[in-house]
Amino acid sequence: MTQPLLRFAPSPNGFLHLGHALSALATWQAAAQLDGTALLRIEDIDTARCKPEFTQAIFEDLDWLGLSWPEPVLVQSERFDIYAAAANRLRDMDLLYPCFCSRAEIAENAIGTDPDGAPLYPGTCRHLSNADRIERLERGDPVQFRLDTERALERTGMLTFSVIGPTILDRPQIRYARPGRWGDVVLQRKDTPTSYHLSIVVDDADQGITHVTRGRDLEAATDIHVLLQMLLGLPTPYYHFHRLLLGDDGEKLAKSKGSQSLRDLRAQGWTPEDVRRAVGFLSNSRSD
Fold it and tell me: What NCBIfam families does the record point to (predicted)?
């Protein structure tokens, strides 16, 4: 049997907080229970917000928690050519099209909301003529490239994936993917040849990830990932969705909301055991 491989993949656009600690500990615990290995991946495709000092802080915080991982660590910003090649495969299938709509235009013409609550793109630029597309691309208009989800689903048909829960050792349950509820998602931007959706499915396949542990807030996004895996001929891992750590406002902890970082807690005298206790992992034994 293939050795179970899992991954923890933070973005270095800020310091890790307790929610990240929960996710990391859940991943390393699942790897131990499966007699597998947990990998660390640095998801830094947002080169404007991701900083080397945040990457270094990730290594330090995880080591402080007693976690270790195999080297070398995959760094996404070193793999843009690989992601661009995957996007070109989709383009060759006539599944990517340029979109020139601004956020304001999308919000004004939205046809509802996606599972994250964002305005659902109405498909405006899907209907542009080739001449219009070429003219606007040559003019240098701001552009992003979207997946024609309806056409993609015509190629794949019905999609399913396996979810394990409530624990990683439970029997997998088959679930139907519903990518259509996301509309035509962005897979490339003018200044970045990839997106979160595209890069992670390519990386999971290249690293041989067998089990993906992620928070329940990313459960719906799995629909898009399963669709991309099928289109690109990539394997679909098992998925396990762990609980979220909520703040006093009832919302999940987030860097964007200034949730207190692990570094701040350490400076206040917290120990790794305190962090583990706070997020529901009482053992402070080193996890490999």
Answer: PRK05710.1-4 (NF004315)
